[in-house]
Amino acid sequence: MKARVITPIAIALFSLGGACLAQDQSQTHTVCEDVQVKQVNSSDTHRVAGTAIGAVAGGVLGNQVGGGKGKTLATVGGAVAGGVVGNQVQKAHQDNNATYTTERRCHEVQGGS
């Protein structure tokens, strides 16, 4: 007898709980955050000039080392290393000259708080 009474009560409570949960998930609220945005003041955003100049300089320096196939490997290695260094030097220069602004970005979120 007790089992018959408890089962309908449990089903009713479970149904109400599910309705409350569904109600919470259907509500939306706005979440906003301040985001720092960097504006690079350069037409060469891919840093091609720094990479190219570094590669040429590295290749010339690498060519001064070794002889035969070693000279070829040193030239290629110097060009690759110089390209990487030139790219990073230009990146640092662009970062120093960049303009930073703060923007407020908001989006809708469903569910509880």
| Number of separate domains | 1
- Coarse shape: elongated
* SS-based class: alpha+beta
Strand content: 15-25%
Q: Specify the number of helices.
A: 3
List segments where confidence is low: pLDDT < 50 over at least 5 consecutive residues. none
What spatial order of strands do you see in the largest sheet? 1-2
- The number of E-state strands comes to 2
Main sheet attributes: strand count, strand direction, barrel closure: 2 strands, antiparallel
Average pLDDT across residues? Answer: 84
N/C terminus separation: 42 Å
Q: Could you give a quick summary of the protein structure above?
A:
With 113 residues, this protein is an alpha+beta fold.
List keywords for this structure.
113 residues; alpha+beta; 21% strand; 2 strands
Secondary structure layout:
Elements: H1 2-26, E1 28-39, H2 48-63, H3 69-96, E2 99-110
Helix pairs in contact: 2-3
Description:
This protein is an alpha+beta fold. It has one domain (28-110). It is built from 3 helices and 2 strands; from the N terminus they run αβααβ. It has helices at residues 2-26, 48-63, 69-96; strands spanning 28-39, 99-110. The protein has a two-stranded antiparallel ribbon with strand order 1-2. Helix 2 (48-63) runs antiparallel to helix 3 (69-96). The chain is elongated.
